[in-house]
Every structure is written in structure tokens, then in C-alpha cells.
Amino acid sequence: MQLQERINAFIKLGDFIRQFSKANIQKAENLEHNDLFFDGFKHQLKLAEEHNGWFTKENIRFALNSWAEALTFDNLSKWLEPYEFDTIVPKQVAIIMAGNIPLVGFHDFLSVLICGHRVLVKQSSNDKHLLPYLSKYLEYVAPGFKGQIKFTEEKVENFDAVIATGSNNTARYFEYYFKGKPSIIRNNRNSVAVLTGHETEEDLKQLSEDIFRYYGLGCRNVSKLFVPKGYDFNRFFESIYHWHPIIDKAKYANNYDYNKAVYLMSEFDMLENGFFIIKEDQSYSSPIATLFYEFYQNIDELKAKLSADADQIQCIVASGFAENEIPFGCTQKPQLWDYADSKDSVKFLLSI
Q: Which UniProt key words apply to this protein (predicted)?
């Protein structure tokens, strides 16, 4: 397949996904093979929600909408324009995926295939229903992909390169196990927000999206605030209160109750509003239903700290703080060229 054929196939996949990206699912006319796949994917959405209690309808729709918006001719062309694809020798690339949010490994899957390689996917058991079905649709609209996509639940073998995502512990295992292969190994990262106290109510409302989307389970979710000494959290709590229905989700509520009980028994200082806890803590990784914060006194010192800890940080949300900052409310809307851990996976895949 030529590059443009591969691009066209993913554009068609984006059109298919778009049907399911709103609360009111409507079958579109004139989509290739839609009669064959439409009802089946509705069933896969139901299975994904039943299988993983964190994969609510709303969060699955949000993920699908993000990919529908990304898989357009303009976005794909802009993403791929800087690269040279003429010298590709097809290889077998293994992807070991996380399962914390719906379709979290799709960008790696897309990157491998768009570069002209074959893909061997080992999914997380938490997110195993959506991608295999979408892969079948892709094979139907672009038969050249048949035989290029394989899923396995067994030990990953017979591959030329690997992209693996996991916890800090599993990443160490990956680095040892895959040390003889070209690889991208990703571990735990968290995102932070830097506040000055001058944010508007709308800024803080947008920030709440970065905190609560996907229940805070993504590496792009803000898990820690840096605030100036003496920061008043009242405006922050007021601005995030519209998320209070999140406590109606049993899994979230159980985490909230557990963490609150632990902090109370340990006599930790904390602030909470009935559905969310904030606690002063130097760690970057906060539990579900909890946000850590840390005071700063000097912006330059804070920049130096975050630079030194860059290998622990996925995103910095701020306004006027750093060149690579992300605007409030945008962490869960990455572009195709926003690479996880700032590791250019396409450049890697073109080099193997």
C-alpha cells in the first residue's frame, strides 16, 4: 500500500467512528461497509462498558470523538508532512498497550500502520473490545491491511521492534526483556498545573476537565497543582463544583471514601468538598478522587524543579508559564503530533 492509501483508510475509519462520538448515535449514509459493521460496533461499546467500570458511555464517547476529530485529511497530512516515507522496509512492530482509558494505545497502532509496518498488538485486559473491531473495519475499507494486523494474548514473539507502555515496575521489566530490540518504553507519568491566583473562573472550570476526565486515570490528567504561597482554594472549589455528579459513580465514590478515611485516620491536613479531596504532598501521582498540591514562592525555582523532574511529567497546564505548556482544558485533546513522553514514535518507526 502507498502512503496515501493508508491515509485514506484511516480517514474512512474516522468517518465510521464519528457516528458513535455523540450521545445520539446515528447511522450515517454512504459509508463503506457500514451495514456490516454499524450494529456490531454498538455491541462492542456495550461490552467495553460492562467489562470495565471506568469506561462509562460518556468517557468512551469522549475518546471516540477525539479520534474522529483527529482522523481527517488535514490533520493526518499536517502530522505526516515533515517525514520521509520512501525508504521504509516493512518490519513487524509489537505494541504492548496500557488499558487505563479507552483506546489509549490507538496512536501507536495508527503510527505503526501509517509508516507501512506490520503490527502485533498485545492489549490490556481492561481495554480489549474496541480496537480489534475497528481493525476489522480498517481491513474491509483497505484490504491491503489484511495480514498486517495481529492481536495476541500470548507471549509477544517474532517481532523486530517494540513500543511498550506500563507502570514503573513493568517498564523496568520491559527494558530488560526487550534490551536486544529497538524500543520505546514508557512508564508512569503525571500532569501538573501551575496556578498564579489570577485565573478566571472559566480557566478553573476548564482545568477541572483536565482533572476529572476519565476519572483522572490518564497520564495527561492533572494530578497535582503548584500554587503560590497563601493561595485561596475557595474559588478553585467553586469552579469545579459542576463535576459533583461524579460521586454517583460507585467505583469513584469507593475511592473517595477510602482515601478520605485514610487521610483522616492518619491526621493528614486536607480540604474536601463532598466529592473531591486536595492534599499538600510533594508526590506527582495522586490517588483517584484526590489532587495533590504544593506551594511555590519563586517562578524560576519552580521552572527549575519541573525541568529536573521532566521524566515524571507528561503535561504542564498553565498560562504564560512555559513554552511547552498546555492551555487549561486541553490535556485530553492532544493532536497527532503531541507524542507521549515527547518521544517521536513516527521518527522511531522510520528508523528501524
A: NADP
Q: Where are the alpha helices (DSSP H) in 115-179?
A: 130-141, 168-177
Contact (CB, 8 A) for 148 and 118? yes
Amino acid type, 223: S
Query: Are 61 and 21 a contacting pair, CB within 8 Å?
Result: yes
Q: Which helix (H) or strand (E) holds 204?
A: helix 201-212
Q: What is the pLDDT of residue 27?
A: 96
State the cell numbers at 203: 480557566
Q: Helices 3-18 and 73-80: crossing angle, nearest 10°?
A: 140
Whose CA is closest to 289, among 335, 332, 258, 328? 258
CA 127 to chain centre: 13
CA 95 to chain centre: 15
Cα–Cα dist 308/22, whole Å = 41
Residue carrying the nine cell digits 463503506: 32
**Nearest by Cα to 348 from 127, 107, 125:** 107
Q: Which CATH number fits domain 190-317: 3.30.1330.90, 3.40.30.10, 3.10.20.340, 3.40.309.10?
A: 3.40.309.10
Q: Where are the domains of the chain?
A: 3-188, 190-317
Class of domain 3-188: alpha beta
pLDDT attached to residue 325: 96
Cα separation, 334 vs 224, whole angstroms: 19
Residue 88: per-residue pLDDT: 86
Range 118-144 burial, b when 16+ CB lie within 10 A, else e: bbbbbbbebbbbbbebbbbbbbbbbee
The type of residue at 124 is S
What's the one-letter identity of residue 289? A
Q: Which pairing describes strands 290-296 and 277-280: parallel, antiparallel, or unpaired?
A: parallel
Low-confidence residues in the chain, pLDDT < 70: none
